[in-house]
């Protein structure tokens, strides 16, 4: 069994892509999973969903459930499958329902401000 810990992330977090701020929140969650870097999850209400386009990609995690993906679309670029969400997570990690996580990359920056 993978050890997963979810806690409120300290401070205010922002996610940017292609020069646009996609979201800023002081309600982020930090999910730590053994063997993986911690991941910041943003409440969906604090993200500009107009920039996100649902993708056909899905994955399954035995510890979290089925993830659905979104691509980030802005005027300068499309970043495929850069965002994921557990719409109906396993009850052990139920706190992440309604939250979005982002893959950091050259075009996606996640930072504490």
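^ structure tokens above, recovered residues below v
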């Amino acid at each position: 069994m993978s050890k997963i810990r979810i806690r409120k992330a300290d401070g205010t977090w922002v996610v940017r892509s292609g020069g646009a701020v996609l979201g800023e929140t002081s309600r982020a969650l930090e999910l730590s999973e053994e063997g993986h870097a911690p991941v910041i999850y943003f409440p969906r209400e604090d993200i500009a969903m107009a920039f996100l386009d649902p993708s056909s990609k899905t994955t399954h995690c035995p510890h979290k459930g089925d993830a659905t993906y979104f691509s980030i679309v802005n005027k300068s670029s499309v970043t495929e499958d850069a965002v994921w969400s557990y719409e109906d997570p396993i009850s052990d990690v139920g706190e992440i329902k309604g939250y979005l996580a982002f893959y950091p990359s050259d075009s996606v920056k996640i930072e504490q401000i």
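The mean pLDDT is 95.
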